[in-house]
Design goal:
alpha+beta; two-stranded antiparallel sheet; single chain; 226 residues
Amino acid sequence: MAVEAVETGGLVFVAQDTVPVGEVDVPELLGAEQELFDSAERLVNANWKILAECFLEGYHIKATHKDTFFPLGYDNLTVTETFGRHSRVTFPFRRIEAQREVPPGQRRLDGAVTSVHHLFPNAMLAHLTHHSMFVVLEPLSTTSTRFLTYRLTKGPATAEALVAAKRDAEFIEIGLGEDREMARAVQRGLESGANTTVEFGRFEGAIVHFHSQLTQLLDDAARPAI
């Protein structure tokens, strides 16, 4: 059976069940000079939506990443933007403070922030200090997910760039392990039945957007065809 595919933003989007891909409205996310240098696959005993939420808010940084990400960043300080069903969450580093002394027209965010594009519904592209990381969450059941990561250089894969990218990736992987453990804990909490509802906070706009778009998509799918 033939499927429809479209390449945009440096990524390839493939339709399933003969549903047209249509216009994929995403910015240019990956450059032609970026090169894949690592990939990994893990099984995580948590629902894929819980894992997706780990990328979309800053509430958990101080508690979950107290010795990794938090010393370099802030507690619950993010900028959230949405475009269509997708979103971008920007996490600043403390080193961004140095930009105060730089004239506005000369300020640069590269190396001063981590930006995470959530490509609805189950893919994340994070632009980190020395590499980019593409994450795909494949649901296997309501309580298990295949967690796929692909790591790319920020530019041409020179020897120096690869050393920096791999060092960056090793550090980020520690934080990802902390996120996965947190997701497993959330899954256990949900399975306990202690809470009948979950309420998102005012700074979790990207998560609210994610679930709103997912609900709308499911409602549309369940609506009888006229």
